């Protein structure tokens, strides 16, 4: 697996990167020495901007966000190679996280803060990624036979 000498990539399934970044003690010296951190994110939630702004207020480190779909961001990081400015990669599903891991984009990180706050089942055993949030999907059924589609059942 390739290692990026100056960057640490943190993949996060359904993650809010600023939540991890707010625990800045895990950041290696030099990662944000320029006073900026570059976040490649496939998330598209307006609430994230508030998290990034709060992080900047608390640390003085500016968060530069590049948004795109996860496959585009993974391709971009691969093409940028060792010259990639990305510090953090945030994905919103495990499949993209796996693809990035398989592509060798992650460097291991050892953090007592992250390891103490993120359960073992939500992180890579070698510290390649940390899951910061999770979501649940529900599928409900009924014993009543229906010829309607799920779309028809939810349409009012």
Plain-language structure description:
The chain has 156 residues and is an alpha/beta fold. The chain has one domain: Periplasmic binding protein-like II (D-Maltodextrin-Binding Protein, domain 2, 3-Layer(aba) Sandwich), CATH 3.40.190. It contains 6 helices and 3 strands. It has helices at residues 17-21, 47-59, 70-80, 94-102, 112-117, 150-154, and strands at 36-41, 62-67, 88-90. It has a 3-stranded parallel beta sheet with strand order 2-1-3. β1, α2 (47-59) and β2 form a beta-alpha-beta unit. The protein starts with 16 loop residues before the first helix and ends with a helix.
Keywords:
D-Maltodextrin-Binding Protein, domain 2, three-stranded parallel sheet, alpha/beta, 156 residues, 3 strands, 31% helix, 6 helices
Short overview:
This protein is of the alpha/beta class. It has six helices and three strands.
Q: Tally the helices.
A: 6
Number of strands: 3
Class by alpha and beta content: alpha/beta
Radius of gyration over all CA atoms, rounded: 18 Å
Question: What is the first-to-last residue Cα distance?
Answer: 52 Å
CATH superfamily: Periplasmic binding protein-like II
Uncertain runs are: 1-29
| Total individual domains | 1
Broad CATH class: Alpha Beta
Report the biggest beta sheet as strand number plus sense, adding barrel if it closes.
3 strands, parallel
Write the element-wise H/E pattern from the N-terminal end onward. Answer: HEHEHEHHH
In what order do the strands lie side by side in the largest sheet? 2-1-3
Beta-sheet strand percentage? 5-15%
CATH-defined fold name: D-Maltodextrin-Binding Protein, domain 2
Give helix % range: 25-40%
Query: Can you tell me the overall shape?
Result: elongated
CATH architecture: 3-Layer(aba) Sandwich
Q: Averaged pLDDT, please?
A: 76
